[in-house]
Amino acid sequence: MKVRVEVFLKPGVLDVQGKAIEAALGGLGFGGVSDVRVGRIITLDIAGDDRAKAEAEAKSMADRLLANAVIESYKVEVA
Amino acid sequence: MKSAVIVFPGSNCDRDCAVAIERSTGSPAQMVWHTETKLDDGLDMVVLPGGFSYGDYLRCGAMASLSPVMAEVKRLADRGVAIVGICNGFQVLCEAGMLPGALLRNAGLKYVCKAVTLDIVNGQTRFTSAYGQQREAVMTVGNGEGNYFADTETLDRLEGEGRVVFRYRDNPNGSSRGIAGIVNGAGNILGIMPHPDRAFEVDLGSADGAKLFQSVAGSALQPA
Predict the structure, then answer these.
(1) B210-219 and B14-25 are packed helices; what angle lies between their axes, rounded to 10 degrees?
(2) Which of A75, B22, B47, B169 lies 20 to 30 Å from B15 when distance is taken between CA atoms?
(3) Interface predicted TM-score of the whole assembly (ipTM), two decimals
(4) What pTM did the predictor assign?
(5) Residue B120 in this model has a pLDDT that exceeds 60
(6) The domain A2-78 belongs to what CATH superfamily?
(7) Is A17 on the interface with B (CB under 8 A)?
């Protein structure tokens, strides 16, 4: 099953990449842009056809490796 | 003193650490590859060196924190052996959950490489006792992700328990409360972003890093 894990810095954690992109967008003339955040998307294929099991497994992967709970939150989507 | 330097794929300060330990304490260090599943029980200190373990993939230190040798590093840490994580090693210790917090991208976005002056906030630790009355130390930083982050509650606890050991005089990377180095609750695990291993003799610009290793040697069962 195709699984997609989105990882983002938690609100309140300074996202310097987002800030730099925001400034660059302003430089290009895009006005009124704020709160630019940069995340990471990890896609993977989990064998089997049990959606719930794949989701639980992906969450476990996110908890243990894909995201760092101190600074990041994540969202799991099973296709 | 018996010490070991762990070598991860992508470590690049492992040799610096070994030389720094030997020159500072008089005792050589063993080099241990990260796939090792047994560390010597007689070790007094284990150093996780700086560098770019696993090419900083995913997050700095994330992959290295899962290396086979880390189970052994944790076992020795639980027994009270001194563990020192320098730069990438600090990131590995945070990712392994052995120290609180995380290291974010530098607030100024740039890789920062320069000498910094540190306040020795707690001179009573196993890693700072040899500094005596000295209240500041000069070492160099070299990091792109050295911006120490922890939630307010954790920061308050670290400060309240005297676990902030080193603080930047001029914060180079946006670290919360200028934190450059912390210890765990038991006081035997140190994470430090600046490099004592690049400041162990005057010819390097500063010899202040040597005292960190000498402090550990002073607490060792088999002194140098």
Answers:
(1) 60
(2) B169
(3) 0.89
(4) 0.95
(5) yes
(6) Phosphoribosylformylglycinamidine synthase subunit PurS (3.30.1280.10)
(7) yes
